[in-house]
Amino acid sequence: MSDAVRPAGGDASWFVEGRLGMFIHWGLYALPARHEWVKNRERLTDADYDPYFRHFDPDLYDPRAWARAAREAGMRYFVITTKHHEGFCLWDSAVTDYKVTNTPYGKDLLGPMVEAFRAEGLRVGFYHSLIDWHHPDFPIDRVHPQRDDAEARAAAAGRDMAGYRQYLHAQVRELLTQFGQIDYLFFDFSYPGDDGKGHADWDSEGLVRLVRELQPQVLINDRLDLMDTDWGWDVKTPEQFMVRDWVRVNGQRVLWETCQTFSGSWGYHRDESTWKSVGQLLRMLIDTVSKGGNLLLNVGPTARGEFDGRALERLRGMGEWMARHGRAIYGCTQAPAGLATPQDCRLTYNPDTNRLYVHVFAWPIRHLHLDGLAGKVAYAQLLNDASEVKMVARRPSHHEAVPEDTLTLELPIVQPDVAVPVIELYLK
Hints:
Helices cover about 25% and strands about 20% of the residues.
């Protein structure tokens, strides 16, 4: 297996530096407020769903507040659902009437959002659904809300996928020509096989050519059903689970990003209660970076255009930690080969500064042993307050002898008052 990372077709420098991004799922599903797949889960027809279109009016929308919350949480890029599977567009698309400018709100949402996030220094990513349950040319298939309705299937038998492909490509062209530089495209998703859709249905090859022609620096995710090519994707995107090690494809390390939620839903879900704590979220971030990946953490705004208070609370908590520990995340990656990770810890490493970071998930009693680092560390400190951590001479315990190549750190008895303590090691 190769330790070299598969090169990207676009510019990946900002991606591996930033490590933490904000995902935003926002659309008509914010009104029912019971999951972004509500149309699918409840088998809703277009007529059933239409009241949400007729009542969408996010009067409290302030993209500057969103962008500020993301920056203060330590996020370096964002990805917004320009169109989710429901087909509703957040910008004034010229090729559809199913868009925000035809709702009671009546104004473009996407342009001001892009401007606000750029003003806060964040890179811009667009999520765009390959799927469209509203478009009249989109055939009913196994993930469509009307998949079990024989009458609807029969009525849709003559739908023209070629017409939908033209529409899909036209919207991607709009997104890449009307909003300045776009750094990341997150397409979602392919499901090839029986009664599904894959690269031929989307003309994924043509989409990639279009993207590279219009904005060659863009990173493209892995959901176009082009994984068997060496040019059709840049970033692997495992969703809602934590990987065991650096993600590989055909034995080679790749750029990767795990997309995760605060709770059990991507869109605003009023009654969902499985919200992760700040500590859990930080451990997810640390674990991801320790394996060479990025964390894309999702917020689902309300139908009035605000971030859920539960999300804001967690963003503030993450921001407090990142303000003191950001250099253990930004520009960091997996520790050099051969270094053993202590129990209940994670290691991140910055190759530019040659500093190793020990993230302590469970605070030990008095001593922390680091195998393979004896004589290799010039200085050690707690990152939260830059207080020295003493390196002590090797000595046997009552039960075991500490190996000669082990560095022992003498820690305070009381854990620092931070969600996850970090020890910064200046390597020689």
